[in-house]
Write a structure and sequence with these properties.
eight-stranded antiparallel β-barrel, mainly beta, 2 helices
């Protein structure tokens, strides 16, 4: 799967590089994400770094494929007895994953002032490469902490490797190439967060805020 994602990303960039009007850019920023359909979930911060190419279709409409490193996760804060009858204190759990994503967005520009407002939307597919869970429960006078790596395969599988969904974005690009963007990622795949437990489909919901530069 890693090879397939790499080939797809390289293919898109190679195709667009053949066009003289193709531009390139880099953006980075903060992600705030959580898992849906689970009780006591809270947004947790992480980061993203994205390189992209942009191929203009008209004077205002472009297609923008990219290759992105995405940190996502979710935080659980709940009374311990709800999570496990044997836990007497409060429970806190944080899950973090890192994935390689390929987004393919359509970008529409509207000239305003010293640059352009832009709207973006399109699908993404991601491949989870690592993950960790940190848990703790607190009782007066003591705190127990533990951590473990997320398993994406095998008998102890905790989460599916593939994550896919749709991105939406709104931003402003100055004439000198500096850009500012806010976005939302709507996960559509079932991440299968806990194995052998009957739960509704669980997927990521992610807000992101970033800055970048387009050459």
């Amino acid at each position: 799967m890693k090879t397939i994602l790499s080939v797809l990303g390289f293919s898109f960039i190679s195709i667009f590089a053949a066009n003289a009007q193709t531009t390139y850019g880099l953006k980075a920023g903060m992600n705030f994400s959580k898992i849906t359909e689970r009780k006591f979930q809270n947004y947790t911060p992480s980061y993203f770094v994205t390189g992209f190419a942009e191929f203009p279709l008209t004077s205002r409409l472009s297609i923008q494929p990219g290759l992105s490193l995405q940190g996502k996760g979710s935080k659980t804060i709940a009374p311990g007895s709800i999570m496990d009858p044997d836990i007497k204190g409060d429970y806190k759990g944080t899950m973090n994953t890192m994935s390689i994503e390929i987004p393919i967005n359509m970008i529409y520009y509207v000239p305003v002032g010293y640059g352009d407002i832009f709207l973006s939307a399109g699908p993404y597919i991601g491949y989870n490469i690592s993950g960790k869970i940190k848990e703790s429960n607190y009782e007066p006078g003591s705190t127990q902490e533990r951590s473990s790596d997320i398993k994406f395969s095998g008998n102890n599988k905790y989460m599916n490797r593939i994550d896919a969904g749709v991105n939406f974005g709104l931003g402003y690009k100055l004439k000198n190439g500096i850009l500012f963007q806010a976005g939302y990622g709507l996960g559509l795949t079932d991440l299968n967060v806990i194995k052998n437990v009957s739960l509704p489909s669980s997927s990521y919901r992610t807000f992101n805020f970033g800055v970048g530069f387009q050459f």
